[in-house]
Each structure stands twice: as C-alpha cells, then as structure tokens.
Amino acid sequence: MSLIRQDDFIASIHQALQYISCFHSPDFLAALHEAWQREASPSARDAIGQILINSYLCAQGQRPLCQDTGIVVAFIRVGMDVRWDTKLSLQALVDEGVRRAYKDKSNPLRASIVMDPAGQRLNTRDNTPSVVHVELVPGDKVDINISAKGGGSENKAKLAMLEPSDSIVDWVLETVLTMGAGWCPPGVLGIGIGGTAEKATLLAKQSLFAPIDIQQLIARGPVNRAEELRLEIYEKVNRLGIGAQGLGGLTTVLDVKILDTATHATSLPVAMIPNCAATRHVHFTLDGSGQAVLPVPKLEDWPQIALDASAPLRKVNLDNLGKQDILQWLPGEKLLLSGKLLTGRDAAHKRIVDLIAQGKPLPDGLDFTNRFIYYVGPVDPVGDEVIGPAGPTTATRMDRFTETMLTKTGLLGMIGKAERGEATVNAIKQHQSTYLIAIGGAAYLISQAIKSARVIAFPELGMEAVYELEVEDMPVTVAVDTQGHSVHTSGPIEWRAKIANIPVFIS
Questions:
Q1: pLDDT on residue 468
Q2: Interstrand relation of 158-162 and 268-275 (parallel, antiparallel or unpaired)
Q3: Of the candidates 373, 367, 377, 369, the residue with the CA atom closest to the CA atom of residue 347
C-alpha cells in the first residue's frame, strides 16, 4: 500500500506542465522530421522547418513551444489501495500544481482560463481550474496522463451521433475539410467511437496520449477494425492536400488515433479532436517513493535542419509602407518584416469596434493608419527578453471585426494564422488590404525577431492588451493578396490534384 504525499503530487504536476511546455516528445519530433524530409511543397516544408527549429530553440532555452500554453486536462487513475497524506481534494491538488507551474518565475506560462464563460469572461490569472477526469482502478499507484491543450486545436473538436450504417471515414473526411487550418496541422487526429456522446468525446481526448506509431502499423498491418480505420483515415486525410498550416502539401496528419467502446444498438457516436503542432502531453506514475521522474531530454536528439535560404525574400519596411507597396505582393510570397506593428486579439477588437460604434475616440496613441495588426497574445518575458513566445492566434476569430477595422481605422493589413472567411477575403479585396500569416507552432522563433514591446492600450486585458512591437526580419507569408487570392484555397486544391497522381501515397 503506497502513501501519496501532497507535496509530491503537487510538485509532480508542476514539473510535468513545465516539462511539456518546452519539450516535444521524441515520437512527435521523429514523425515531424520525417514529414519535413519528404515534403514536396516549398511553403509547407518551410512551415514544418520553422516548427522544428522552434522546437530546438525551446528545448535549448526552456521556453514555451507556443504562446497558447493551453488548458490543463488530466486523466488520473487512482489505485484503490492508495492512501493519501493530504486534506485537499484531487481537483484542488491538480489546480495547485497548475498554479505553481503557470506562475513559475523561471518560465511563466500564459494564463488563458476565464471564469463566467457566458458572461464577463474574467481571466483567473493562474490558469486554474483544470479539467480532471478520475477513475478508480485496482492497485496501489496513481497513474497520470496530463496535457496542456491549446485553444486553436481544441476549438476544432467535433461530435456526431451517426446512424449505425453511416460511414465513419466519410464523416471524418467531410469534417476535416470544414476545420480549416486553425488547429495548426500537421498534428494528430484523436477519434472516439461508441458509448454515449460524452464517452466518445472522452475517448477521443484519451487517444491523443498514445505515442505516434502509424508507420509501425503500416509495416505490420492492422489486426482489428479500429486499426483498419486508422490506416484508411490517415491516408485519405493526407490525400486532401491541406498540408502544413493549410498551405497545401503532402502531410496534414502525422497519425490517427482511435479508441472505441460498446454502444447502444441504435447509436454510433463519433468524436474527433485534433492535436496541433505544439502537442503537449506526458505520462507519469506516483508510487509513494517521491516526485515523478521524467525523462531527461538531450539536445542532440533534436533534428538539425536549415531553412532554404536560396529563395528570394522581399524585405519590407513597415514604417514606410503604403497601399502602393502591398499591391506588389504575391500570394504565397515570403516576406521579412522590419519596423513597428500593433497587436490585438478578440477582446481588444471588441473594445475598438465598440468605441467606433459609439462615436468615441480610440485611446491616445492608438492609430492604425497604414499599419499592420498582429493577432497575438504573448507570453510574459523572462531575463533579458523583451517579450516571451509570441506566435499568431487563429485569424478567423477576428473576421467579424475586419470590415469595421478596414473601413474606419485606416488599417493596411493583418497578420495571423490559418484562413479567413469568404466575407473577410472579399473585404480585403474591396479595400485592397492584405492578410499575412506567421507560422503557428513557431512562437519562440518568432519572438526572436521582436526587438522591443510596449503596451499602448487596454493594459487591463493582460495578454489581450494592444502592444506596439518593433520587429526585425519577422518571417511571414502572403496568404491573401490585394486581389483576394487566398493560398488557403489555392494551395490545398493544387496539392490535392498532385497527390491524386501518387499511386501509393504512404510507403
């Protein structure tokens, strides 16, 4: 019979969350590196390359892989012979570990959790409460799978109550096509089948803890229907040509995971949850002997790659930019931005458009005329950093504000990740604006290009405040040009056609 002490449990949660914020798992790195090696799309290969370089820098500097350091989800299996040395509930124990991890001064993690979700949505400031699932099992150990799930991928979770005769594969393919690139592919699809609505969703989430092993499965062949589905979905999703960051390419998913269970004779519940390119999870066991012991990463295990420096890049001075300049930019063209830009996410956009609607002036110093806005909520800096990891957030959430921003503020262009909606693309074309993307999953790499940062509006919003950033050679790609041409539309179509001519897509 083991005795689990309060301090050991809390310290293990703290340690695990710090660990997964900085270190990709070896299986994910290997799969991503393999995808980079075989990728034939220059844009997708560059995106994967940036993610791999970012991963190495984060491991080296022990800083977050992504600015969105996630909502904490823990699946805990408690042995029925375990004794506890604590007066706290299991939820309170996990939350205290989360609190310490996210407020760790050596590597602060962004607090993204808001209370009163249908009302004021006030940030709890310490990323609590977490989501805890508990199962009592035989034994005298506590087994923990813990993850930090980013909002961009979690927001793409899907659930369907299919008819028993419906095709699961067809539903997955149709659904993936509606998900866009906001989940930051390439990643892993977790699928839960059976049970009830909530059970299928839990199975989908739990499946994402399994190591990436699709190539081993291809080599040995499937032994049951779930494994047959994994292989079929893996190949057919990749044949959609969505590619890294939705730019079009060979690899959209690195693996497909499936867990299933019995269900009612009239039901076929199916849930799907993607893990993004900053997939963060770890497993550990407590047996009463002390804190969890996690594997020590070795920097030599990270693939050493270099981005293609032969392609010509257009250098852009943001401080001397006008409409005549952006008219020359081509869809898919890579740019290096230098100069000053502004930031803003959902909360700041809401404040701005409300002030405009009320006929009130914007805060002093906030002027968007001929400027770019970067959709980002950065991590706090440490040491001599001017800013912490600062990758882009999903741009579609700002679509509802874009017409007003382009019409009323003099805004020249926008920077984010993933596609824009049809109405927004039309507004960009009408105003001869442009939309650029930075690579989701390369937050620390992007922060290296930021040379200064200061809050200029709405400081009470925390990471949602409006910053002015000064950047030097910040890499971006033209996703929607002034004529309304979108690479998130043209790229997947182009690569879907190319992949169709590959007899055996996955060797």
A1: 97
A2: antiparallel
A3: 377
Tokens in use for 455? Answer: 């809050």
Q: Write out pLDDT tens, residues 163-190.
A: 999 999 999 999 999 999 999 999 999 9
Residue 286 pairs in a beta bridge with 142
For the record, the structure tokens of 365 come out as 């110093």
Residue type, 459: P
CATH 3.20.130.10 describes domain 314-492: yes
Q: Is the pLDDT of residue 310 over 70?
A: no
Question: Which residues lie below 8 Å from residue 147, measured CB to CB, with a gap of 6+?
Answer: 20, 70, 72, 73, 74, 208, 209, 280, 281, 282
**Are 348 and 461 spatial neighbours (Cβ–Cβ below 8 Å)?**
yes
**Hunting for tokens 């508990």 — which residue is that?**
134
Q: Please give the model's pTM, rounded to 2 decimal places.
A: 0.94
- d(Cα 181, Cα 78) in Å, to the nearest integer? 37
Closest CA to 203 of 141, 255, 254, 273: 273
Nearest to 108 by CA among 56, 54, 69: 69
Q: Is the peptide bond before 164 cis (omega within 30 degrees of 0)?
A: no
User: What is the identity of the amino acid at 414?
Assistant: M
Q: Where in the chain is the domain with CATH 3.20.130.10?
A: 314-492
Mean pLDDT of the chain: 95
Which secondary structure element, helix H or strand E, spans residue 176, and what is its range? helix 168-178
Helix (H) or strand (E) holding 271: strand 268-275
